[in-house]
Amino acid sequence: MAEQDDIIAAFEAGNVGGVRLSQPPIQTHISQIFLTDSHAYKLKRAVTLPFLDFSTLQQRKAACDAEFEVNQRMAAALYEGVQPLIPLGSGRFRIGGNGEPVDWLVVMKRFPKGAEFDELADKGELTDDLLTDTARVIARAHGEAPTTYLEGHATDYRAIIRELDETEDEGARRLDLTTASAPLFTALDAELTRLDHLIESRRKAGKVRRCHGDLHLRNMCLFEGAPTLFDALEFDERLARTDLLYDIGYLLMDLVRIGEHRAANLVMNAYWDETREDEEGLKLLPFFMALRAAVRMAVAVSAEKLDEAAAYRKLAMELIRPTAALTVAIGGLSGVGKSTIARELAAHLPGAAGGRWLRSDVLRKQAESAPDYSDTARNAVYDQLYTRAEAAHKAGASVVMDATFQSRKQAERAVSIPHCPAIGIWLDATLDIRLSRVSTRDKGPSDADEAVARAQSVPDPLPAGWHSVDASGSMDETISNVLKVLKLAD
Q1: CA–CA distance from 207 to each of 160, 200, 203, 307, 373 (Å)?
Q2: What does residue 63 show for φ and ψ, rounded to 5 degrees?
Q3: What spatial distance separates the first Cα and last Cα of the chain, rounded to whole Å?
Q4: Is beta strand 48-49 parallel, antiparallel or unpaired with respect to 79-89?
Q5: Residue 357 has pLDDT above 60, yes or no
């Protein structure tokens, strides 16, 4: 590390090819990052950790090349290349050109200060649109990622658990402490055993791909107006070739960690809608999110950040703890605010990332043919809604079904799905309020206009299992009323 200390000192002194730092160097567990007003230069630290070895120049060069290559898929506009660091004598260096390299650098464009997603979260700037766009960017990256059938076995995740145990044990011994995560690793191993079959079936179905691998808030930024995924995992292909849901599970865990449960739920639902993931996959989210938290816990112990490790350990145990799933049908006439309330309610429901939000309007638009509003087509959409709700419930996930349920037959079916007990919430508002909302709402998947709103009528009386809730007030007031009916209010 002595030679790298000289490199760091040279950057700080302005003795690296005219590079002028705009702030002190940033050290992570595997990199040293030097920032100017326009660029970032990443030096791989000469470290050996349980999960990587950067001790030789050749290994660091290979890691730089791998980082540049893997990030070309998701952040080509950010990554400029890999350059040698050439010594010039007297503590001075040059980036690029001829000569014997003393080390290697990944060269990136600098994104604006405050553009990383953790910073945006701190400022309250993770808007619904940005989160939805991010979920779609991730879905697109996953769709374009190469598939592998050789990794992503249940045994690979079991190996991760074992390695985390060893990492924590090593860190604890170094600090002369006893390990504290045995209950967590036992719980993770037991849950993995329960999920073995599903993990293997998804691998065989092509759900294991070369993913980002390190998809947390600090590895996402707003660059040139678009959410951008950068700093993908480059040092271990085995860890990057995983189930798609393990990849996005990192982001969901990170959002929950900072208290952004609503954001996690919005991202989860937008991703599911975009990829058309099978609801059975929801069964894996608590385990994958908890395993991601356990990874961060072990890294924190290794870095001697014990308070941080304890927080991640506590989060992992909370994520993997079983919850009682709840299924809710949100009905009402057009303009009453069904989708707004259903979206907000989903984040309040039990589950590692809240509940699955299933919308009849989205299912209708996902049909292969043009949207069809005939009775036959409408019944087919409801059939799909109930089938997917049942699948989600079977996976142990909470569900919100969002549709008009104007037909008494459909309202009765919604609360009598086999093996999926549901509570019906009928949102009620006057015609004037509904017409006002229809005329001013943003364009979404619903095609209902004022004519449709005027023509609708309420099932009278409401079927058993349904509860009428006043939706004429603000969204917060209506959500509060719904939560009281569901007995979820604080």
Answers
A1: 19, 10, 5, 35, 34
A2: -70, -40
A3: 53
A4: unpaired
A5: yes
For residue 361, is pLDDT > 70?
Answer: yes
Residues of the chain with CATH 3.90.1200.10: 117-320
**C-alpha–C-alpha distance, residues 352 and 132, integer Å:** 19
- The yes/no answer on whether domain 327-486 falls in CATH 3.40.50.300 is yes
The residue type at 279: E
What is the rounded distance in angstroms from the CA atom of residue 214 to the CA atom of residue 259?
20
Tokens of 483: 């939560």
Please state whether the predicted TM-score (pTM) of the whole model is above 0.85. yes
Among 439, 248, 276, CA closest to 356: 276
What type of residue is 445? P
Which CATH number is correct for 117-320, 3.40.50.1360, 3.90.1200.10, 3.40.50.2000, 3.40.190.10? 3.90.1200.10
The SS3 assignment for 157 reads helix
- Amino acid in the structure at residue 195: L
Question: Per residue in 143-178, pLDDT tens?
Answer: 999 999 999 999 999 999 999 998 888 888 888 777
Lowest model confidence (mean pLDDT) among 78-82, 112-116, 298-302, 372-376: 372-376
Q: Which of 94, 65, 95 is nearest to 83 (CA)?
A: 95
* pLDDT reported for residue 43: 97
DSSP single-letter state for residue 147: B
Lowest mean pLDDT among 113-127, 219-233, 313-327, 430-444: 430-444
Parts of the chain belonging to CATH 3.40.50.300 = 327-486
**pLDDT, tens only, 96-114:** 999 999 999 999 999 988 9
Whether 167 contacts 298, CB under 8 Å: yes
**Residues with Cβ within 8 Å of residue 279, at least 6 apart in sequence:** 272, 356, 388, 391, 392, 395, 397
Main-chain dihedrals φ then ψ at residue 318, nearest 5 degrees: -65, -40
Alpha carbon of residue 16 to chain centroid: 38
For helices 244-257 and 306-320, what crossing angle results, to 10°?
A: 120
pLDDT digits (tens, 9 = 90+) for 220-279: 999 999 999 999 998 888 899 999 999 999 999 999 999 999 999 999 999 999 999 999
Q: Strand runs (DSSP E) across 325-415, as ranges?
A: 327-331, 356-359, 399-402
**CA of residue 149 relative to chain centroid, distance:** 23
pLDDT confidence tier of residue 441, bands split at 50, 70 and 90: low
Residue 50 has pLDDT above 80, yes or no: no
Q: How many CB atoms lie within 10 A of CB 162?
A: 12
